[in-house]
Design goal:
single chain, alpha/beta, 7-stranded mixed beta sheet, 9 helices, 14% strand
Length: 333
Amino acid sequence: MKPLSERNPIAVAIVGLLLLALIAFGVFDSANLPIIGGGTGYTAYFAEDAGLQAGNEVRVAGVIVGRVTGIALAGNKVAVTFKVKGTWVGNTTRAAIKIKTLLGDKFLALDPTGTRAQNPASPIPLSRTTSPYDVTQAFNGLGQEVSQINTVQLGKSLETLSEAFSGTPPYTRAALRGLASVSQAIASRDNQLSGLLAGAKNVTGALAGEDARFAKLLGDGNLLLAELRQRQAAIHALLTGTQALAIQLSGLVTDNQAKLGPALQALNQVTTVLVANQANLKKALALAGPYYRLLGNALGNGRWFDTYLCGIVPKSYLPPGTGPSTGCEPPKP
């Protein structure tokens, strides 16, 4: 083979760019690769999507086995495509869209049953799929329906009915008048009710956006409770040991009270004597300092006493020029 330096640089550059493009395509589309990809793809028909979105989890018995890859209309039904990996899907498998959290997050739940494997090219029919009842969407729909009601016209119609039933018994007229009053009250608060429903929609949207943080908060709380549960035995042993120690100490004091009493009394007498002789002790300590300093000087040069005696030999017996001239002072060099 020719060395790389001897080849055509344009051809080498083109081949290198193609290899880089293939590597980039493999990295960005790794989920669709046959070996390391996201698994086998299936399709399920639902009567409605119920808020399910691409990227939501696919679970079997609570375990995550894949992800939803797409949602599209297929006539009068919704086609949900998903991929699962490492799990078996039977020919009578049931699929259901379920609510993951109270904030409206969804996931696709599979009940893999059947005697044969499900054909990936054959969709799961409507008869084997179910959708949940979404409370948030129901309230949103209620708000839209209420906002479309002409409350003023409704109030007038109820007033007309009240006038038409003016000849009826009193309790009937009272009931209709009450209905008219309710209608007028609702009509007068129409803008406020619309604002309330819009605010509720914004609140649910904000809570849904913070779903990950709520899930993490609940998970951290679960970890804290689990750790406290694991440490429960150690905490119990610590408390019981402290209680036992207190009992032993109280028993020890009780058993030795006869001996501790005289000992403390004698110690009190000793301290009383020391306090009475505090001045003498202070003076003794002041005198002991110079004495022990001189004693240290005498013994600090070796294993002997380094002393100087003056006045033992008469001065007349000393050679001229030796000894101190006055007093008993050691000669200075």
